[in-house]
Write a structure and sequence with these properties.
Layout: H1 11-21, E1 35-40, E2 43-49, E3 58-63, E4 66-73, E5 91-98, E6 109-113, E7 116-122, H2 137-144
Antiparallel strand pairs: 1-2, 2-7, 3-4, 4-5, 6-7
Domain SHSP: 26-137
InterPro entries: A-crystallin/Hsp20_dom, HSP20-like_chaperone, Small_HSP
Family: Belongs to the small heat shock protein (HSP20) family.
């Protein structure tokens, strides 16, 4: 059986950190937003772990070649609740990706399911490999005739 301790030997340390960093201890600290990125066919897939963050609290913006993801997670408890332990990160999460010229920033797609934000960034048409046709075979025959 797990019990929550009512008296916390680190309470003073927590109080000091809250005074330094803000009311919830996370106001000025950057929060982690783990990411995976890989190429799949003609798309780059980027996935961010954002457990407990609703889709309407996530912003994805592209300006020039910089893609910015911002998400905010607030507390699940109310002001008058007696919080025993608060270890889950809260506050604003932010991450920026610099997109290369070979990516199509105009057609980025985003979806969020089960706490995972997935971005699909297509490779620009001009950057895809293409076959170059070679002319000259018929021209050579006409010259020799």
């Amino acid at each position: 059986m797990v019990m929550l301790m009512r008296t916390d030997p680190f309470r003073e340390l927590d109080r000091l950190s809250q005074q330094l960093f803000g009311t919830d201890g996370t106001a000025t600290r950057p929060a982690a937003m783990p990411m995976d990125a890989y190429r799949s066919g003609d798309d780059y897939i980027v996935k961010f772990d954002l457990p407990g963050v609703p889709a309407d609290a996530i912003d994805v913006d592209v300006e020039r070649n910089v893609l910015t993801v911002k998400a905010e997670r607030g507390p699940d408890y109310g002001e008058n609740d007696d919080v025993q332990v608060a270890e889950r990160p809260r506050g604003t999460f932010s991450r920026q990706l610099f997109l290369g010229e070979t990516l199509d920033a105009e057609h980025v797609e985003a979806s969020c399911e089960a706490g995972v934000l997935t971005l699909r960034i297509p490779v620009a048409e001009r950057a895809k490999p293409r076959k170059i046709s070679i002319s000259g075979g018929e021209e050579r025959k006409k010259i020799n005739a």
